[in-house]
Amino acid sequence: MVGPADTILRLDCSPKGRDANSSQFADEVAVKLSALEPGAWQVHRDLAATPPSFIDRGFTRDMNLFPVAAVASVTQTLRESEKLIGEVESARRILIATPMHNYTVPAVLKAWIDQVVRVGRTFESTPVGKVGLLPDRPVHIVVSAGGRIVGDRARQPDFLTPI
Q1: Which of 72, 73, 89, 159 is most solvent-facing, going by the fewest CB within 10 Å?
Q2: C-alpha closest to that of 158 among 100, 114, 108, 109
Q3: What is the CA radius of gyration of the chain?
Q4: Mapping DSSP to helix (H, G, I), strand (E, B) and coil, where does residue 29 land?
Q5: Whole-model pTM?
Q6: CATH assignment of 7-144?
Q7: Do residues 122 and 62 make contact, with C-beta atoms less than 8 angstroms apart?
């Protein structure tokens, strides 16, 4: 398995593939990240081309029964989740290239998040709130959005970009 300092995980989320503005800009960011991490492997996951599964009844049942990776990997329902979590665990940096769909993240990115964010595996609930179980790492996000917003103080609120 590749170690934490060895990979840059890139997620592309646009159905436009290589033609997407987010993907083209992420290419430029990836070059700069490679300069920061010489020799790092680039792991590329095109979520639009190969979307993660949506969580279902079996997943929600088994994620509570098998929170530990060694046990969870033997269940068919958590196998994909374990693979995706493994990619995050092996990444020194993460690059997410995403369009904005209907003022938020595309469904394929939300499905990936649902597979990776798992109670007892990547975070735990404590009396003071939720605590992450994975080491911190830089996450670089490239967001593209269509449409026009005009005027000196024009702003279209959404659920993806900072206020």
Answers
A1: 159
A2: 100
A3: 17
A4: helix
A5: 0.88
A6: 3.40.50.360
A7: no
Asked if residue 10 has pLDDT above 50, the reply is yes
Pairing verdict, β 91-99 and 129-132: unpaired
Q: What is the DSSP letter of 17?
A: G
pLDDT value for 4: 47
Residue whose entry in the numeric block shows the structure tokens 């992450």: 132
Indicate whether 116 pLDDT > 90. Answer: yes
Kind and range of the H or E run holding 43: strand 41-46
* pLDDT above 50 (res 110): yes
Spatial separation of the C-alpha atoms in residues 35 and 99, rounded to whole Å: 25
The one-letter amino acid code at 46 reads D
Distance CA 113, CA 27 (A): 22
Ranges of each domain in the chain: 7-144
Task: Measure the CA–CA gap between 127 and 11, rounded to whole angstroms.
Answer: 33
Residue 18 carries which DSSP code? G
Neighbours of 1 (CB within 10 A): 6
132-141: average pLDDT = 95
Task: Work out whether the CA dihedral 84, 26, 1, 123 comes out positive or negative.
Answer: negative
